[in-house]
Amino acid sequence: MKPLNYAILKYFTKVSEACADDVIKALKGQYGNFKALNKKAVINALLTAEA
């Protein structure tokens, strides 16, 4: 299994546009038991990647 932050960023290579809720919904099957799979953490991962 890939790290969650990598999976979040990889998701954006497959879609043209998405919000944090879309990412959570898409990754819930594989990463549903991760505490970091929440809106605040997803947004933080995206902002960190952008910097």
Question: Can you tag this structure with a few keywords?
Answer:
mainly alpha, 3 helices, globular, 51 residues
Number of domains: 1
Q: So what's the overall shape?
A: globular
Overall mean pLDDT score?
Answer: 93
Radius of gyration: 10 Å
Approximate helicity band: 55-70%
Helix/strand/pairing category: mainly alpha
How many β-strand stretches? 0
Describe the biggest sheet? none
Q: Low-confidence runs (pLDDT<50, min 5 residues)?
A: none
**Strand portion:** under 5%
SSE pattern: HHH
Number of helical stretches of at least 4 residues: 3
Distance between the terminal alpha carbons, to the nearest Å? Answer: 25 Å
Topology:
Layout (H helix, E strand, L loop, with lengths): L3 H8 L8 H12 L7 H12 L1
Helix pairs in contact: 1-2, 2-3
